[in-house]
Design goal:
199 residues
Length: 199
């Protein structure tokens, strides 16, 4: 799973390198945020990954690459509104070039740290899981948000995300590819009654 994480993080960096400064200010598919604000959210996830990879878990795993997402309930509490406001405020404090450079360095550090033994147990967000399963969750998050940022995920990361979404659903998705991931995560309209599978 570490290779897929490396490829999707590299794709994020390549996408950012190809954007003009004003394009970071365009709306993303994550309706609350611009591309710049979405990048700040993605940077926060990479920081969390670094902490997790340096935090051994001392209890048996309680989630895996699929059940991790079932334990995530973004609709509870304020529905993520406070986090959305926090991201907007933090992103506003960053110079765009500085934000991209921090992403570049942090994402590279995560990839290096993710070379830990895949069966090692780590802790994040109150859960214990293997490094392999943590990397899977990071791949899914980065893939969906790269689509949100109008980027193109690498094939291995996209295929993995489709597999995880199918397991969450309990049966195959109607189609493969980026558009189906966008439908399955509520970014594009769908007639499937069990969509969205993730928010």
């Amino acid at each position: 799973m570490a290779p897929a994480l490396a490829s999707v993080y590299a794709a994020w960096t390549d996408h950012l390198d190809g954007l003009e400064p004003e394009q970071l200010g365009r709306p993303s598919r994550a309706s609350a945020w611009t591309v710049k604000e979405l990048l700040l959210h993605q940077l926060l996830d990479a920081r969390r990954a670094l902490v997790a990879l340096a935090t051994p878990a001392h209890v048996d795993p309680d989630v895996d690459a699929v059940t991790y997402w079932r334990s995530f309930h973004p609709d509870e509490g304020d529905g993520g509104a406070s986090h959305a406001r926090f991201v907007v405020a933090c992103a506003a404090a960053y110079d765009q070039e500085q934000l991209v450079e921090e992403w570049r360095g942090t994402s590279a550090a995560v990839v290096q740290a993710a070379s830990s033994p895949t069966s090692a147990l780590v802790s994040t967000q109150g859960h214990s899981l293997t490094v392999e399963n943590l990397c899977s969750t990071l791949v899914v998050e980065a893939t969906v948000h790269l689509l949100d940022a109008h980027g193109t995920p690498p094939a291995d990361a996209l295929e993995h995300t489709v597999r995880v979404l199918a397991k969450l659903r309990g049966r195959p998705l109607p189609a493969d590819g980026a558009d189906e991931v966008l439908r399955a995560t509520g970014r594009l309209p769908s007639d499937e009654p069990d969509y969205p599978l993730l928010g």
